[in-house]
Amino acid sequence: MPVPPQNADPVRDARELHRKGKLAASANHYPAASRLLRKGIARLDASGVNSVESLEVRVRLLITLSFCVAETRGLEEGLNQIAVTRESLSAMPPGALRDELESLANGVHGVLLFRVGRIWEGIRYVDLDVAYHEAKLAQTTDDPTPVVNSLVTTLSNRGNAFGEIYQFDKAVRDLNRAAELAVQYDMPMRAAIATHALGNVLLRAGDVTAALRRYGEAAKTFQEVEPGLLLRLRIDQAEAMIAVGLADEAGRQLDAVLPDLRAQRVGQDIAEAEMFRAIAALHEGDLITAQRMAKAAQRKLAQRGSPAWAAIASLIILRARALCAIGTHRPTHRPPARLVERALSLAAELAALKLHEHAALAHVLAARLEVRRGNTDRAAELLRSVPKSRRFSPIDHRMLLRLCRAELALAQGNQRAALAQAQAGLAELGRMRDQLGGLELLSGTSLHGRELGELAVRLVLAAGDSPANAKRLFTWLERTRAQMYRYDPVESTVDAALGERIAEVRQLSRLLLRARLDGAPTAELEQRYAAGQRAAMQLGWSASPWGKPRPVATADEVAARLGDRALISFASCDEELVAVVVVDGRVRMVRLGAVEVATEAARKLHADLNALAPDHLPPPLVEVISASACREARKLDAALLRPLADMIGDRELVVVPTGALYVVPWGVLPTCASRPTTVVPSATAWLSSSRVDRDHGSGVVLVRGPGLAAAQGEIERLAVLHRDAKLLGVEEARVVSVLEALDGVELAHIAAHGEHEPENALFSRLELVDGALFAHEVGRVRRPPERVVLAACELALNRVRPGDEPLGFAGALLAGGARTVIAASSKVGDQPSAAAMADFHRALATGAPPAVALAEAVAVDPLRRPFVCLGSG
């Protein structure tokens, strides 16, 4: 064993090791911190020094080690370490130093109790810590910074704990004071930690938008000062994403942070991340991943001595198993009794841990299983034991309770009560949606109401095909689909940070494109690009509410506006495709057979049209692909429109697709050849876009992006038709210029390369000379353009979220208030695009409505001109 130098000071060395250990712990490097702290303790042990100063340093080392041990070896071990610390502390002589160390020990002891779910017990210790520091701050005449630093930390910890037990007023009080003190004494890091904690409290209180705003504020400081703290924040952000239905985005975020958490061996955070990853998978219907992740989390949490968290992980496992047991809607299937027993025993366990919201959910699961088992009396008894949902109850818990009540009513033969529960649940979900900002959030919430909506649609379909029932089905479809298009956008200020972040994403997009063209490695750039997209999107989430909600359109209102046109609203339920047809003031329902027939033909047609898009394909290849595309188009026509021929005649059509039908270029189908056809996300959206009392824009702008040889002649020809148009050539068509030109214009034509972003539809883009123009940006133009023509590839409504919430470049324009958008539903060659646009604008210049003009243009060569008219025709 090395002999320390004679002039070495063991107490000083141990104090320095404590300083380094605290730094490592603050960066979440707990194993490294533990090694440094143990080395300091060993240094004191070897020295034999037994002064008050050495005892002080030992206690400081032990206090910090207690927290690190809890993170790496389990909370029970951490609590044992605190007990050892208190033994050393008792040897300290009474006085100010002992009071200070006792306060530190109380703070850590309280936090460890918080982590095992013993909140009230922990608060008693932390109250002592707060009282000590408040008194110290009031009395100190020296530099108050160290006292304020400790007080801010303690207030933040207590505020977070109050939030866990729904004491929101106390939580906000503590966290606001912590943040104010940190700002007052120039402690940006402490202010960010308090702000992060305030976000957690607001999330539990049900204010998701405010929570996301606080997370964004904290993330900015963490990124600049201590990036290691971003990992914990990303877990909490993911929980908020799940709350608003963005389970897919939450899953991607957690998949990104879990490797780093595992590398740092942060036990509690790893387990919580796995638990929320399980919840995300549960909402996406991936029950295998849900159970795997929840079991991994449950094992870790049990080993760490965290019974409350372990019980919550067990509840997620139960939810996945219950869904597996409930399965499809086979009336003969009975879930096993042991699953009900497990739900009830878990409910008792959760209640004993004072996790009342989760205990209620376990009772709901037991009741739902009993309904499926045919034990309706027992199910009703269980539901009576479930307390009324509170305002801050998680929305998915509230929707599951509504669903269970509806299923019970249905099992008891009370369809009216079942539909009333569905309607009340969707209305509750709508009130939450009304408070959200950003199209992603608006579209995501439908995930939570999906099963309620499906139940209602299934009930209506089971009641028969009468005209009255067709009208009821129309109403339910409007309540359950494309809710993000049910808002009149309100003007909002542009967030500077969001603008900067989008500019960064634009620059990364250009670098990525250049690297691909040069054949250079792109993995790192792709990661940075995806991370930039996520960061920009998350900044948009904390914006003010997107708009004012409009009432759901009624069949009578739509019929009155249609005139001589016919509206077809497609829907699917239990693998069956159905159409609701509104024509001549009548509403009728037609069952169209298996949905898979139509969706498979739609996918194949889409693939064929993409393959047919390039300008210079060999003629034999064109012939083969065209024959295949025509074959699939005829199949689609037979599945979707021919059964409706007697109803629709030769009328213009307004079509509301569902699922995979959003990629259909309707002009390719024989029934729609030369027929004006408008595609809309919902009848409510169509009614709004076709309102005659809307403000009209003025002027025409023609935009040409780079890399389109055919576009120069295209724009010149269009300029002859629109003599007063504003022209933006390749060099003039920059992002800012194009956005300014779109503001308040009557007609905008943009000829540019476009690309749909499948993982993040609001970052679908048009390529301009200075970078990408994103869908995210066009949706917030102050005065939306009246009509927009996107002479580019596949920028229609290409991504469909649960609840038939279509997203994409065109979708952002429509949701932002544009009346009509012309866009391609698949890839399109430069030459046929230019030719189609010339024909379209010639017809438009003669006064033809957009749907009529486009029908004539597409009919010339439908397979090479896969454009659709979206919005109002």
TrEMBL record:
UniProt-listed Pfam families: CHAT (PF12770)
InterPro entries per the UniProt record, alphabetical: CHAT_dom, TPR-like_helical_dom_sf
Transmembrane residue ranges: none
Domain CHAT: 632-857
Record protein name field: CHAT domain-containing protein
